[in-house]
Structures are given as C-alpha cells and as structure tokens.
Design a protein that fits this description.
304 residues; alpha/beta; FAD/NAD(P)-binding domain; 2 domains; 7-stranded mixed sheet; 5-stranded parallel sheet; elongated; binds NADP nicotinamide-adenine-dinucleotide phosphate
Amino acid sequence: MYDVIIIGGGPAGLTASIYTSRAKLKTLILEKMIPGGQVTTTHLVENYPGFPEPINGFLLMSHFQKQAQNFGAEIVISKEVTSIEKEDKIFKIKTPDNEYKAKAVLIATGAKYKTLGIPGEEKFKGRGVSYCATCDGAFFKDKEVAVIGGGNSALEEALFLTKFVKKVYLIHRRFQFRADKILQDRVKENEKIEPILNYVPVSVNGKDEVESITIEERDTKERKEIKVDGVFFFIGLSPNSEFLKDFVKKDENGYIIVNENLETNVEGCFAAGDVIKKKVRQIATAVGDGATAGVNIREYLENL
Ligand code: NAP
C-alpha cells in the first residue's frame, strides 16, 4: 500500500514526487516508458529557469529523476497503467501484470503529438515520417525535409533540423506562425528554412520510403508536390487520458478538469501537467502543477 501513486514520470509527476517523498509519504511513480516525458526528446531547453545556458532535455530530466529518488521516491519504468478504480477510499491502479494500491493518486500522464491522418503518414512512419527531430534528425544528413506546423514545436524542431539537413520546407496552414516571436525571428534568419504558408499537407508519397509530399493552397486549392526525404509533423498535442475512460471528468478534447488545488472530481485523485485542461503548457508550468499537487496531496492524506 502506497500513500500516493503518481502515474507518469514527466516534469509534473517527478516534481510532485519530490514534494511527497520529501514529506515522508510512501511514493511510487509508474512510468509507461522512461522518466522525463516529452522533454527527453527535446534537444535543447532554453526557457526553463535556473539554466542560463540551454540544457539538453534528457539531461534536465535526469536531474529531476535523481532528485526524486534522493528523497526516496520509487520509480517503476515500462509500466503502462490500464485503469484506476476506487473502493472504500483506496485506489486500485491496474497494469497488464499487476495491481497497485494507494490512498491518493496523481495523474500526470502528459500529452502526445497528434497525427494528421493523411494518406502515407502511417505507412511511412519510421521510413521518413517522424514526430521527433531529436530522435531522427541525424538520419537526414544533407537531405531535404518538410516540417508541418506553425507552433513552438514546429519552429524549434525546424531550427534543430538545420544542423543536419540541406533544406527544411516549413509548411504551415496560415500566414501567421503561432510560435514565440524569438523563434519566428530565428527562422527568418535561417537560410536553410523555406516557409510555405497557407498550405496544408494532402499526402506523403513514395515507394518504400518517403520521396515527396503533396500540399494544397488553402484558398486557391492549387496542389504541388515537393521532393523531400522526410516529413516531421508538429501539429499539436492530445492528452494521454484514454485509459481513464469515465473515471474522472474531462473536457471535450480529453483534458482532465481540475480545480485550483489540482483536484479532479474524484476525492483523493489529483491531476497535473499537460494532461489537464489549461492554457499554457511549458516545463515550468508542469513543475508548478507538480508542486501544487504534491502539497495538496500531503494535506489530503493528513486529513484522511
Ligand atoms: P501548438 O502550439 O498547438 O501548435 C500546433 C500547430 O500545428 C499550429 O501552428 C497549428 O496551426 C498547426 N496545426 C494544427 N492542426 C493542424 C492540421 N490539422 N493541419 C495543419 N496544421 C495544423 O502545438 P505545439 O507546437 O506542439 O506545442 C504544444 C504546447 O507545448 C504549446 O503550449 C507550446 O507553447 C508548448 N511548447 C513550448 C515550447 C517552448 O516554450 N520552447 C516548445 C515546444 C512546445 P494554427 O496555428 O493555425 O492553429
């Protein structure tokens, strides 16, 4: 029996575990893959306070993990939670091969990159289609690639890819980028990036590997084919909350609804980080959520 089980070992979950384990609560983190969450696939993080020089995402998260473990948090990796039940104030957290019990639970399962669902996207996954420039960028040395999206991820990853590739076509569905101004300025200054605006991808084409992408102008409907060896999709996030089914209240997009104490509608069940309904999704805001949840879980358990 644990005092608290935290589902997800990204910035929110690891921060909460630092607070709960430091408060001497028996804390277990169940992590689907490896600790660190999405940040581990980010080459350089430059807006997380405390690091005046950009820090590698994987390294940053290994510091979070070490700090949590120093206070006694237990971490089980490669453990995907399939459901949660509550009976007599005790939570039962199920994985394919086990059942864990806890007095409180924190859902910090984050979000994943969305897929577009156009022809060729699924077929060429791992053969030219990617959702992670840090993981796959080096395979495209001196090649030409397309990046889809106009948010912070798309622009950051397009800039990162220019370290390897000859050219990046940055394809965005509007004339204005959504990304931070500092990234827009860097893209403008980078000769390897050619923005293609007001176009949407229609299909990814090739025989065994990606050979081209077809795009369509949104107003004129004119289509053109661009020869590329890779296509990187960064069209936003969707929450990792399907496994919960109706256990907690969610909004129409699947984000968990919480109050200012990060409590869900189920007593003793908290949620934090990218999986909750909120406006700003940053490492710093996930960390803030984790701290808030950690403190409120401690109070909840004291009053139980
Ligand atoms: P995002 O901010 O939601 O941007 C998604 C982009 O994809 C938008 O430009 C959107 O176009 C476009 N898009 C969405 N659906 C599309 C479709 N069906 N077809 C074509 N284009 C489509 O997602 P994100 O860039 O992955 O970022 C997610 C969150 O993480 C954000 O809160 C972001 O600020 C944060 N983040 C922060 C940093 C940083 O601070 N360094 C880095 C990465 C991510 P529209 O603009 O027209 O909607």
